[in-house]
Amino acid sequence: MIGLLLLLTSADATSNATDAHHNHVLRSLLQEMSAGASQHASIPIHAAAVRGDVLALTRLLEADVDPNSIEGERVEPVTASTPLMLAARRGDVELASLLLQCGARVGSAGGHGVTALHLAANGGETNIASVLAAQLDDPDLRTSNGQTPLHFAASAGRVEVSWLLLHRGADAAARDASGRTPRMLSEEAGQRGWEAAFEP
To answer: What is this structure's pTM?
Structure first.
């Protein structure tokens, strides 16, 4: 079912992919999936996000698929992800921008309270981190253990993303559930030479 849906929505589909018949088939497939187990209704949009397939994602969003759906929440809560989180992990600004335009929430969290901004920070994806942070009044989103995106960036040695988050108002003195600040994590991870970024 998922493969057929992605085939119908992919960039390689035939020229009639945007006609009324195609849209009817797509909507029917989505309705059929939604009528079954609701936890599986989000799978196609996640598959499109993993593939970086903008056309498929566009068609799914036009068919009112929830851009904030969480895949794996019931089956594998630890790795549960939103489409925006998958776009952030890919560093795909185009995909993330499309999701945001269609109502994706930057603060929507997956497993352990991790958000798209945490993943972008951890991966050193400065461009997408900038897009995501611009949507927030406060970039200090917290995971279940109290870590902010800046904690993630510092621990992973992502200097550029760290400076970006600080410029956006991230708290350099924020402490996680264990009392550790981003600077402490950077030192624990052996990151050197950029201590000035974490001065309180």
So the answer is: 0.77
Q: Which domain holds residue 56?
A: 1-66
CATH number at 183 reads 1.25.40.20
Q: Using one digit for the tens of pLDDT, what is the confidence trace for 100-135?
A: 999 999 999 998 999 999 999 999 999 999 999 999
Taking the C-alpha atoms of residue 155 and residue 153, their distance in angstroms, rounded to an integer, is 6
Q: Supply 193's token pair.
A: 């030479």
Tokens (6 digits) for 8: 């119908």
Beta strands in 38-138 (DSSP E): none
Total domains in the chain come to 2
| 125 lies in the same domain as 186 | yes
Rounded Cα distance between 9 and 26, Å, is 8
Distance, in Å, from the CA atom of 47 to the CA atom of 160, rounded to the nearest integer, reads 30
